[in-house]
Design goal:
It is a single chain. The protein is α+β, with helices and mostly antiparallel strands. It is 42% helix and 32% strand. Strands 1-2-3-4-5-6 form a six-stranded antiparallel beta barrel. Strand 5 and strand 6 form a beta hairpin.
Length: 139
């Protein structure tokens, strides 16, 4: 379920703009499914990137390939699943003006999406990284 929350973005020049943060709340079942999908997608991409190396040296790949796949599926996969399963609210985007360039555009979360201000967001118009804060902190 998506809803909007009032927030502020601060640029490097300390100009502050009031914006609306679009936040999606996840139920426990949705978060569990989302964690599994993200974990499996990441593991699949990593496995596909490593697999062509088996053609270069197939016998050596039996040893180090087993270690790599073991680490991927026994450590990285469960870690990603638990990380995204614990994320109950995600920042989808920010509606408002960039304090640096003044463009009214959709600001996107940078790297992490878990809703817990302060966060870093990017302006798609000028590429500037901005700090998203809740309105109580900015006041």
């Amino acid at each position: 379920m998506e809803h909007s929350e009032r927030a502020c973005v601060r640029g490097n020049s300390d100009r502050v703009e009031s914006v609306e943060a679009v936040v999606r709340r996840w139920t426990a079942a949705q978060a569990f499914g989302r964690g599994g999908k993200i974990g499996l997608r990441t593991l699949g991409i990593a496995a596909l990137l490593v697999l062509p190396l088996a053609m270069i040296e197939p016998f050596f790949f039996l040893v180090w390939g087993s270690v790599v796949f073991g680490i991927l599926f026994l450590i990285v996969g469960p870690y990603l699943h638990l990380k995204y399963w614990g994320e109950r609210a995600s920042l989808v985007g920010v509606k408002g003006r960039c304090p640096e360039c003044g463009e009214a555009d959709q600001l996107q979360p940078f790297v992490r999406t878990e809703w817990s201000p302060p966060m870093t967001v990017l302006c798609s118009a000028c590429g500037q990284s901005l700090t998203l804060e809740s309105e109580e902190v900015a006041a």
